[in-house]
Amino acid sequence: MLHQLNPPPPMKTPRPAATLGSRSSRRNFLKHGALAGGSLLLLAAGPRGLGAEPALAGATETSPEPANDTLRTIHRLHTTHGNFLEKALPEASLQTILQASVRAAGASNNQSYAIIVVKDRKLMADLCGYHGGCLLLYCADYNRMKASAAALGYDYEPGTIVDFVTATINTTLAAQTAVIAARSLGIDSLLTNGIHRGDMERIWKLLDLPPAHCFPIIALVLGYADREPSYRMGRLEDTGVIHHERYHRLTKEEVAEISRQYDDKERHLGLNGDWDTRGYKHYLDWYFKAWAGRNLQPGSEETQMLQLLKRSGFVELRTS
Description:
By secondary structure, the chain is of the alpha+beta class. About 35% of the residues lie in helices and about 10% in strands. The chain has helices spanning about 25-45, 70-75, 90-100, 120-130, 145-150, 160-185, 200-205, 250-265, 285-290, 305-310; strands spanning about 115-120, 135-140, 190, 215-225.
């Protein structure tokens, strides 16, 4: 059973001396944002907070024990899949998570995203297939910026793929920051792209999203798990993931070693543990044939995601 912690007191963020237009001020903005986020995690320590959780299987076989409470929280992140208790989030905790989320770094500090808070459990399930104590839908969104520009008499049209990629990065950083803040408060989470499955048009209809320059990126379900996980998912930690100075192309031996790591069930890198009993020689045989292979063949028609991106104005359409 999870114990709810009292939220930390509000932080006073230092004000950079330089203007936001200079390079040094942008570095200061990111630095102060990181310091504020780190302080939030440290303040949230408690009986179920930082440093208090037992180590999970598969967590630190090859990595040293994290050196501080902030790193321990990050290393103990895990996903809850559909086993949330029927328990609402305290409003104070929700507000703490939201305030941490908007402190995430972002391009030009324009916060090109919208966070929609959903507490209705049926609506959560209709949106993404899961429900918990609360759902935060993170959308790439420029409508706030467009309204501000129009009020000042400017024509602002963020209608390029660059705008969409930038907004997606900003949105994802905000969502991951919320996950870390929630974990520091003893609140479990599930980041899901279930919003992209089935008829995506339902997201606009259910939440009255603007048809242009607003696109749902990811849903974050928050709540309290009904049981502790017996292990957390492993990660590849070096070759093929981390590249030094320049991109490293894998050798045959390195590719074979990566496959061996996926086959090692103690590392918990795979989505399931019974791939071998299904007749596959390697886990990646199962992954590419039975899992990823479902969507490997390109269709002859546009996907609904591309159609909706075009409608949202994020795909540059050129006529000859």
